[in-house]
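Q: Entry one of two.
A:
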Amino acid sequence: MANARVSHEGTVINVADGKVSVKIEVKSACSACHAKSMCSVSELSEKVIEALPAESLSVGDSVLVEMEEKFGLKAVFYVFFIPFVLMASTLFVSSNFVSESIAALFSLLILVPYGLVLMLLRPYFAKRFVFVCRKL
């Protein structure tokens, strides 16, 4: 399991500058359910991902976009775990000094600088979280 990979099938929509733009369909867990026509919970959306081509590709090719599973876990850490810890710690610390409603506001506002830091570090993350695509 050292090289576990997350993969999605997609279609190449653009090839430029050594990168490939791939359109993938993201399905919710219940989109394959036989009762989805009667349920409003099912969801299907399209995303565009930039990936490095493992071989020569052209527009319209069906490809498999892959990323190592460990990078997905790191992304979850940065996007969910750290903000939760920031909010919880801000709430607990500030509730000792101000009212609960103000402490709750502070715990939400702490996400603004964190979001700005993530935006500033986007080039760093783009180099580390790399998708690779291969022809199907």
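Q: Entry two of two.
A:
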Amino acid sequence: MADSKYLYGLGRRKSATASARLFAGKGKVTINDKPAIEYFSDNKTHAGEILDPLALVNKQKDFDITILVKGGGIAGQVDAIKLAIAKALTVGFTDLRSTLKKAEFLKRDSREKERKKYGLRSARKREQFSKR
């Protein structure tokens, strides 16, 4: 591990932003000062999915993780957290970068919601055309 106290990574997805700090520890995950399972309201799928980058490199029990996440919905937040954890791992362990990159954990999904245009109902939806 690096000489600093923790490893830091920032991840974004849709309108969600997550910053992750990985401390040496026993595998405790805290999101916005709540345990991960409580933050995702007992949804074990989401709570387990955020640890996928760690599971890939067999380091689930090596770090205590503190995550600060803002904006977006649950799905966007989960993807932002995964990206933040993967980036933090590459800061401390540069040899893991190729493994995480092959599994596409370091890829930022840039798709965002398209803005509404004036004169239309939504971004592209419009009134039905009438010829007469």
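A: Comment on entry two: The mean pLDDT is 93. The two ends are 72 Å apart (CA to CA).
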